[in-house]
Amino acid sequence: MPWLILVVAGLFEVIWAYAMKQSAGFTRPGASVLTIAAMLVSFGLLSLAMRSLPLGTAYTVWTGIGAVGAFAAGVLFLGEALTPMRLVAALLIVGGLVLMKLSTP
C-alpha cells in the first residue's frame, strides 16, 4: 500500500506542477487554487508513504514521478519539444526509479 500511495502522491505532484504553469505566476485564481490543493494532497500522501518507506527511496521516487510526469505533460499539453536528448534524460530518470524500487527491501 505505501507504494500505491507514493505513486498517487507523485501524480498529484504532476498536477500541481502543470497547474502552477497554468497559473501564470499565481495571477489566475482557479489554477492557483488547484496548485495549492494538489500540493497539499501530494505532500500529505508523501508523508503517509514515508511512514513505511525509507526517506531516500520515497523522496527520490516522488520527485522522479513528478519530473517525468511534468516533462510528459509539457510535451503533450504545452507543445514543449520532444528531442532525443530530453527523451533519453527522462528514460534515465525512469531507470533510476526502477532501480530504487528494486533496491528497497
From TrEMBL:
It comes from the Bacteria. Pfam families: Multi_Drug_Res. One of its GO terms (biological process) is xenobiotic detoxification by transmembrane export across the plasma membrane. GO terms for molecular function: transmembrane transporter activity. It is found in: Cell membrane. Keywords: Cell membrane, Membrane, Transmembrane, Transmembrane helix, Transport. The chain crosses the membrane at residues 33-50, 57-78, 84-102. It is a multi-pass membrane protein. SUPFAM superfamilies: Multidrug resistance efflux transporter EmrE. Its main location: membrane. One of its GO terms (cellular component) is plasma membrane. Belongs to the drug/metabolite transporter (DMT) superfamily. Small multidrug resistance (SMR) (TC 2.A.7.1) family. Gdx/SugE subfamily. This is Guanidinium exporter. The gene is sugE2.
